[in-house]
Amino acid sequence: MPAMFFGSISTIADTSELQRQAYNDAFAQHGLDWSWDQDEYRSLLTSSGGSDRLAEYARAKNESVDADAVHQTKSELFQSRLADAGLTLRPGVAEVLHEARDNGFQIAFVTTTALENVTALLGGLHDLDESDFDLIVSRSDVETPKPDGAAYDFALLTLGVTADQCVAIEDNVGGVQAATAMGVRCIAFPNENTAEHDFAQAERRVERLEFSDVQSTFAAA
């Protein structure tokens, strides 16, 4: 049975700007005079992992910051806002999920974000919930986050599939690296804040999901 993997929250609903706003509000709550505008945030998204990103940013500014605490505040703010954000599925997601099911695909959510973020996202959507996925992988399931391939390795083993039976959909470079590290072919589906990034490692890049692209990615093997 083939499998299709959604690699991050923003491959389902574009929450990238909500994330940025939550970071800035967390900075204010922790007494930091940081403020990430969209251009700076876009450049920071070339690396993965929220706490690591914060720690690296603090080091670059020669400041001592509890990156884990700031990131926890950011996550709480982000989660609390998802329910009232009026989230909608990204273009083509609903149709691709339906067609994939009709064609016998297993469907997994393969992230290394916190499970609470995934739960909050699905709770904020009216047309998608946990029952739509055969597997949800989160940060609690693996020791190392993306761009390490551990999350995809976990998904392959749990679902009992091989890499050549799978296609991943990712919205950031670290996610593409994680998928390809495990031999999983990848479709890049950039979000608002990763649209200018280099997705050369992906098999293809799309602005709208189409099941024909999933099928073509399999055929390219």
Question: How is this structure best described in words?
Answer:
- This protein is α/β, with parallel strands linked by helices and 221 residues long.
- The protein has two domains: 3-13 and 88-219, Rossmann fold, CATH 3.40.50.1000; 16-82, DNA polymerase, domain 1 (Orthogonal Bundle).
- Helix content is 43%, strand content 10%.
- A six-stranded parallel sheet has the order 3-2-1-4-5-6, with helices on both faces.
- Helix 3 (50-60) crosses helix 4 (67-82).
- The longest helix has 16 residues, at 67-82.
- The two termini are 16 Å apart.
- The mean pLDDT is 94.
Short description:
With 221 residues, the protein is of the alpha/beta class. It has helices at 16-29, 38-44, 50-60, 67-82, 93-102, 115-123, 150-159, 173-181, 211-219, and strands spanning 3-6, 106-110, 135-137, 166-170, 185-188, 204-205.
Tally of contiguous helical segments:
9
Low-pLDDT residue intervals, each spanning 5 or more residues: none
Question: Radius of gyration, Cα only, in angstroms?
Answer: 17 Å
Compute the number of structural domains: 2
Strand order of the largest sheet: 3-2-1-4-5-6
Mean pLDDT metric: 94
Question: What is the beta-strand fraction?
Answer: 5-15%
CATH topology of the largest domain: Rossmann fold
The helicity comes to 40-55%
Question: How many beta-strand runs?
Answer: 6
Fourth CATH level, the homologous superfamily of the largest domain: HAD superfamily/HAD-like
CATH class of the largest domain: Alpha Beta
Please tell me the CATH architecture of the largest domain by its name. 3-Layer(aba) Sandwich
| Alpha-beta content class | alpha/beta
**Largest β-sheet summary:** 6 strands, parallel
SSE ordering:
EHHHHHEHEHEHEEH
Shape: globular
Give the N-to-C terminal Cα separation: 16 Å
